[in-house]
Amino acid sequence: MGAVDGFLNYKRELPKSRDPKTRVEDYQEIYEPFSEDKKNEQAARCMDCGIPFCHSGCPLGNQIPDFNDAVYNKDWESAYSILNSTNNFPEFTGRICPAPCEGSCVLGINKDPVAIELIEKSIIEKAFELGLVKPEPPKHRTGKSVAVVGSGPAGLAAASQLNKAGHNVTVFERADKVGGLLRYGIPDFKLEKWTIDRRLEVLEAEGVVFKTNANVGGNISVDELKSNFDAILLCGGSTVPRDLPIPGRDLDGIYFAMDFLSQQNKRVSGNSDVMFNHKGEPLGLDLFATDKNVVVIGGGDTGSDCVGTSNRHKAKSITQIELLSKPSQSRTKTNPWPEWPMTLKTSSSHEEGCERDWAVLTKEFVGKNGKLTGLKIVDIKWGENGMEEIRGTDRIIPCDLALLAAGFVHPQKEGMIEQLELELDGRGNVVTNNYATNQKAVFSAGDMRRGQSLVVWAISEGREAAKAVDEFLMGSSTLPSKSKSFYELV
Ligand SMILES: Cc1cc2nc3c(=O)[nH]c(=O)nc-3n(C[C@H](O)[C@H](O)[C@H](O)COP(=O)(O)OP(=O)(O)OC[C@H]3O[C@@H](n4cnc5c(N)ncnc54)[C@H](O)[C@@H]3O)c2cc1C
Ligand code: SF4
Known about the structure:
Layout: H1 6-9, H2 20-23, H3 36-44, H4 53-57, H5 64-72, H6 76-84, H7 90-96, H8 100-103, H9 116-129, E1 145-149, H10 153-164, E2 168-172, H11 181-184, H12 194-206, E3 209-211, H13 222-228, E4 231-234, E5 240-241, E6 254-256, H14 257-268, E7 275-276, E8 282-283, E9 293-297, H15 301-313, E10 317-321, H16 348-351, E11 355-357, E12 360-368, E13 371-383, E14 386-389, E15 395-398, E16 401-404, E17 408-410, H17 416-420, E18 442-444, H18 447-450, H19 455-474, H20 486-489
Parallel strand pairs: 1-2, 1-4, 2-3, 4-18, 6-16, 9-10, 9-16, 10-11
Antiparallel strand pairs: 5-17, 7-8, 12-13, 13-14, 13-15
């Protein structure tokens, strides 16, 4: 254990974020540097609890008190080795994980929890700086080959693990660049894309092969994969967005959030190629919020990313509306520690400016000459029988750009899933048994299997699926398996 009384002596402190007025002028990450002494103090707050609930709060089973102790002792090599044993990509989770571990930190019962996510980011960035993150190709190759379809966090984690086990791994990605939603969903101000490129260099040097513009079930047939590989692991994500089929939906000015966000990420990367929406239809690189009244429909992470991007485009006004009621500021009796706190979250994008409204139903898109001009909305209240409109609250709010950020329903069925004749569950996700689908030698992991989720869950699924594939190919596996997280036990 680090400092016995660290939790008494130090308050939780995070790096300062850049002034919202200036940071909306660029797409760079928003945090200022944080000194090594401060990181050391934050690690000292860990109490090294007898039962570390944070372990099971983390979907990867990260050994948090152990790496906190190493950071406190400025032993970065040990800290990196502990973190690397459970997490292939701490540079992503250390930046964008909502940190369910912190929700289950024992110190969080009556003080602010340990700043675990910050410590994780500090360890991996220091490890890169010290040259500790080196390519480690496997000593022996098994002669078996695996095709991983999809290069989001699930596919990348699986590829990394399967390569460690000695298999020849090829990752097929239909986009022009590797990374999945890390690359073309999550904005640069949350995750700068050099972090992905830096990791890809390591994976390539270890022997993982990447093929981009390779659409399996499109320009690459599933039969080609079946005949050339010993196993196939599908990590295609959950890509079909939830629509809002209400009157006026065909007006000009209504877009899915991902169409808006992925265009901007591409612009930031300096790429002016045509983008395609989830149906494969071309989108021009001309979708801007500049001088528009923007309404973001959906109160989650994706919606918040649309707010941050609209602020950078200099929208005239930005309103984010949500169907559910406003969450409370603190935990309720039905949401006790160590569960993930379902409390009101204010993101850095919200801090940059926007109106937020909850318990609001969108009834109609209103327009003139085929163009969107407003949204007809009404307040609702939630009761035992569901939602009820509140009489007399109908109103029209101005809107020239509506961004639908109401989540994703399931993976795309046309193409790969249909051609492989995969069994799907009632929600349209791929059915698996220990990551194996109904087709021999075909496995699935990540959002495609579990439904839309988080980066940390995608990495966890990729690691677990890699172990299942390794067992299938070799009869047994020495790849690590994680302990069950709190969320899988309850
Ligand atoms: C806007 C947005 C913001 C988010 N913010 C956060 C956040 O802050 N924190 C967080 O933890 N999570 C966040 N998430 C969720 C997180 O990004 C996902 O849960 C995670 O990326 C899922 O990983 P995955 O590997 O399963 O799939 P994806 O990341 O979706 O990757 C799937 C990949 O498969 C490719 N593919 C699909 N079909 C084929 C095919 N037939 N052939 C070849 N390639 C194919 C796709 O092109 C894609 O690159 C966010 C999601 C969105 C949309
Ligand atoms: S990956 Fe997420 S949940 Fe796990 S320790 Fe890091 S911040 Fe916490």
